[in-house]
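Q: I'm writing up a methods section and want to include an example of the input and output format. Could you take the sequence below and give the corresponding predicted structure tokens, formatted cleanly so I can copy it straight into the document?
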Amino acid sequence: MEAFSDLFGQIPMTINEGTPISLLVENICKRFGSLEVLRGISLTAYENDVITLLGASGSGKSTLLRCINLLETPDSGKVYVRGELIEMSTNRDGQAVPTNRRQVSRIRARLGMVFQQFNLWSHLTVLQNVIEAPIHVLGLQRREAIERAQELLEKVGLSDKLDYYPSHLSGGQEQRAAIARALAMEPDLILFDEPTSALDPELVGEVLKVIQNLASEGCTMLIVTHELNFARDVSSQTVFLDQGRIEEQGSPDNVLDNPQSERLKRFLSGNYRRTI
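A: Here is the clean output for your methods example:
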């Protein structure tokens, strides 16, 4: 695998056509013990892109997201966020580690993350969950943070739940609050890790509608999902992962309607295509 000995520098922030690159991932590899989970993943997300990541359980989708924001440390490869390379080095044990923790914290603040299990702070109200990071990480004044939170909670349909605690919300409401919390940081890119997998079927649609609205507003997103009709409707690009590699990628129409590999054909034929 590629070593981390030459991972410094910058890349151009735009391509020839002038479209800004929000995220560039080059040859990311990750293993857990003897299990190789990611085997050289490369991916580019331009500004306003919505990239859906499909694949069976264990294909590496969630690990890829966690490597992008360094919740997991990739063993090799490069990640650029808005042209800035996340600096990595090798420790005495030969393991890859972030070189600059301040850089990691700063870049994480620009990468929103929405988890499967919501991860709201149970001891804080919905409003408090949304204003916490903007105040303590971005340094916003409390009044400004509250105003921003109120606007975002109205956007996700929770303007009447500001003072509710997470335990008093439905799963769909919790996930919408988590989306508002991610948006409050005004991120360059939002990573969604199977945002509907923990929801009852009747609550899935309300969360997907919120994400669809964000896509229509030009929000740049990477979304791990099993909702194939949703992927078709919302994606600028669809990526199918299998055993830690990109098996196919392209427009959702090409990937979902004209699969080339037998593995993708089997995956599509075996999945129930839910509608919103």
